[in-house]
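Can't paste images in this forum, so I'm doing it all in text. The chain is below; anyone willing to post the predicted structure tokens underneath?
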Amino acid sequence: MAWNCRGLNSSDDPTIPFLKWTIRKFSVDVLFLMETKSSKDVVGVVARLLNFENYDFVEAVDYAGGLAIFWCPFLKISVEEKSTNFIFCKVADVIRNGFNEWELLLVYGSPYVDEREKVWNGLDDIMQRASGKVLLMGDFNQIEFHNQKIGGTINIPGKEMFMNWRIKWQLIEIPFHGVQFT
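Text version of the structure:
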């Protein structure tokens, strides 16, 4: 599950109870949080509250950004590379006759259009090094079509660059569940 939590630092924030409920209800094995706006210590507390022994993170800078991945013990996840916009992992999970190995690229695209090309180029480098099956998950912070937004200009900055990048890697979108516009 990937979720832009928009901060984990408020003691009265309903984020933790909501995540506990979601993890229980949907048997979440991997949780990717974006915009944690948190330090290493806070992410560690969140891991304990959510009953995840395994986690890694990218600390927020001046209470902006921040990424965290939490995972269940039956998954063997090795974080290979991380930045303010992504966490790249190698994953081995137990299946009936052994292990299934694949790669996981957790993405938080820059909220600033002029910085997105740098993010796509960084993801290009990782995708070129990937050895096989790669799952990309997260928020690219980029829309392609007008029905993906409400109001505003008819111009969609960064659209062509993102669409070309997505087509280059033959990526398909897995539909989201829940409220379309937040």
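The radius of gyration is 17 Å. The chain is about 25% helix and 30% strand.
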